[in-house]
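Much of our argument rests on the idea that a fold can be written as discrete symbols. This step matters because it turns folding into a mapping between discrete strings. The record that follows shows the chain in one-letter code together with its fold in token form.
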Amino acid sequence: MLRRVNVLLLLIIPVICIAPKALGDEGMYPMSELDKLDLKAVGLEIDPSLIYNPDGLSLVDGICKIGGCTGSFVSDEGLMLTNHHCAFRAIRDVSSPEHDFLTEGFSAITRGDEAPAVGYTVRITDSYRDVSAEVLAVVSAGMDPEKRTKAIEKKMKELSLAEEEAHPGKRAEVSEMFLGKTYVLFLYTYLKDVRLVYSPPLAIGNFGGEEDNWMWPRHSGDFSFMRAYVGPDGEPADYSEDNVPYEPKVVLEVGSEGVQEGDFVFIFGYPGTTYRHRSAAFLRYLSEQYMPVVVDWYGWQIENLVASAQGDRGRELALAARVKGLQNTYKNFRGKLQGIDRLDLLASRDRQEQHLQLFIDSDTQRRDNYGQVLSRLDDYYTRRAETTVFDLWLRYMLRSSETMSAALTVWENSIEKNKPETEREWAYMARNLDQTINSLVIKADTYDPQADALIMGELLRRAESISQAKQLPAVADMTGSEGQKKVRKFLDGAFEKSLLMDSDTLLKAMEMDTDELEEMNDPFLQLVAGLYPPFLELREENKRRKGELDQLQASLQEIKRQFQGQDFVPDANGTLRLTFGRVEGYSPRDGVRLTPLTTLEGILEKDTGMEPFAVPERFKDLIVAGDFGPFAHPELGAVPVNILYSTDTTGGNSGSPVLNARGQVVGLNFDRAWEATINDFAWDHSYSRSIGVDIRYVLWVTWKFGGAERLLREMRVDF
């Protein structure tokens, strides 16, 4: 299970949680809380110290974050296992109409053929330090909410920079665990040379496409192999042919026998953001105001971007990662909206808060301290709702178009670089500037002016129905009776004149001051300059809002803790967590029982010869031939493809290893069932199910279809 070991100091959060009552149980547990859980009682076979050991090496040392996903080290030469959709942009970037690796699959024959994954980084958690007292020391009673937020942000940056100065070559970040209440300083190793090793064709890696996304039963081979490299001295380094594979502290053993129904499993990962401790007012705002606007805008983009590129494989490749990201959020939000309605979640949260208010009102001191918390939260979200449509329009105007996004980055950098380091926005701090610039270069490399013109034209058209937008001088001339003609004229001239999306121009622009940028007379920079004052005003307002909300949320958590008589796990926030459960099916509706394993037979049953259910003929021949080696399920007689389990996961858990009771990798998490899209707000054992690729399918595809036997040998897998 552990093949190599060293030192781990990880994740203490100043809250505690009770031992699980059942398997699975709600909770994305910080590592420090594992000694409070009786994991042996629910199925763990190894010593819990082998999962997390603050005084030595443990399984968590084999976990990393790749971009916005999770990955795991499966060889002592830096080989990482993650999802196909996590490696999607890297595959797209090395593809062309002549060598379409999304369609064909990518397989590096030798180390020298492994392709650079530009812009990808690997983050490994090294240590933690609770800094709540230090952060909150800058806050005073009655402090203006905006000043409060800025003071906390500045302190977080100061602590991060000081930690990095004390640990050269490392990266440090302060994470807010409970809003306005607890803060932890994490120290990370960042690896900057990441390469693509093996990915199956999209027809396997995304079999079922958007039709199957968030659904069960599922038959997706959503996996890829990547490799981390370092300089010859073993230190993190930018890409170089002289670099060598990274040697991880711990390698996770691959459990090629897979799982059976009922098996105990657990997952490490970096789950994104959950909102389980938020108020009913937040949930109402999100479901009635915020998410419907996002769903509408994302749906429009998907439909029109796909239609505009149809039949042009070069443009389809350029837009592929963009469209895939939109589709994932679009379907996720639709699932959340349906889930909130299906579970009557608003009414349930209202009832909980009615009981909470009665508890508050039953005691004079509680009433004095917390009596207005819920009503003030209601007022807060009522005020937020009044400007939501305009706030989102302005954000999309500056971010949905890659041209405008790049122009905003360049313009803002010219302003931020003149500020002290700790007062700059995060993206423009010297420590983060390389990543910001890399992001610009990636945008330039896949720039599609036709798509941008489409998006900008629609956003300018929508400004006509938003009163705050129509009043902005920067776009006022493009509204009214002749508005659409003026929009078309502006866009035609702007895209013809602008040279901004040339990568060399972008790099030069990042060195310029505001006066020099104005002299470029670039129409997109001019539009950004006009929109920047209201954007800046909105950003400052959001800081004020955060300062107000943090104080209300901190009070809400305090009184809920008193009401419940116990502490609870903080919402997920991108830091390392553990969750556990069993391989088990569920019943989504009356008379329907879904079993927890699918097999290769299901692929043949679903295959129609047309996307998204069309696998290569050679792949079908391999299935029919039945040469499954040691990877067939002993009872099912075929290779399992996907598995279903009752762990507590959310976005960011993509790529998380699914581990068995002995700590071996038996699967790769990539999705949740449709009913579990609601996990961000609520979790329930009856419907919350996560979906993973069975490790036997990963190994069989890599071996039989990919011809990458060298990877199985590297992982020490017998076949």
Q: What stands out?
A: The CA atoms of residues 236 and 314 lie 34 Å apart.
